[in-house]
């Protein structure tokens, strides 16, 4: 609220009502994920048209380590709090060693949705 009062627009929020609505959406996402035991893939959401485009952006390190980049911190926090074994992600940069050593292939396979990351114009992954 201090940022908004100072004329800033964090996460494009402009008022106390915007902040309350955002937190209500995050609370709803948490409750739905808790009830389901997993995140929905973005392609299953009504406002999405490509796999994980606009979702959590993950870069893959040489040893297969997933490195979050940009947004998605709330989804990452929910996954950690709920101890989820995997979550949908959009793949960014990939170290060549991760491909050579099979880490990328391992990350692309979902135990919860075997079709994740296949059949679209944007690669998706579960991490």
Low-confidence stretches: 117-124
Question: Into which percentage range does the β-strand content fall?
Answer: 5-15%
Counting DSSP E segments of at least 2 residues, the number of strands comes to: 4
Would you tell me the overall average pLDDT? 80
Taking the alpha carbons of the first and last residues, their distance comes to: 34 Å
So what's the overall shape? flat
Q: Please give the order of strands in the largest beta sheet.
A: 2-1-3-4
Structural class: alpha+beta
Helix content: 25-40%
Instruction: Describe the sheet with the most strands.
Output: 4 strands, mixed
Number of helices: 5
Q: Report the order of strands and helices.
A: HHEEHEHHE
> How large, in whole angstroms, is the Cα Rg?
16 Å
Summarize it:
It is built from five helices and four strands; from the N terminus they run ααββαβααβ. The protein has 127 residues and is α+β, with helices and mostly antiparallel strands. Strands 2-1-3-4 form a four-stranded mixed sheet.
Tell me what you see in this structure:
The protein has helices at residues 2-5, 16-36, 73-81, 96-100, 103-108; strands spanning 57-60, 66-69, 88-94, 124-126. It is α+β, with helices and mostly antiparallel strands and 127 residues long. A four-stranded mixed β-sheet has the order 2-1-3-4. A hairpin with a 5-residue loop joins strand 1 (57-60) and strand 2. The longest helix has 21 residues, at 16-36. The radius of gyration is 16 Å and the shape is flat. The model is unreliable at 117-124 (pLDDT under 50).
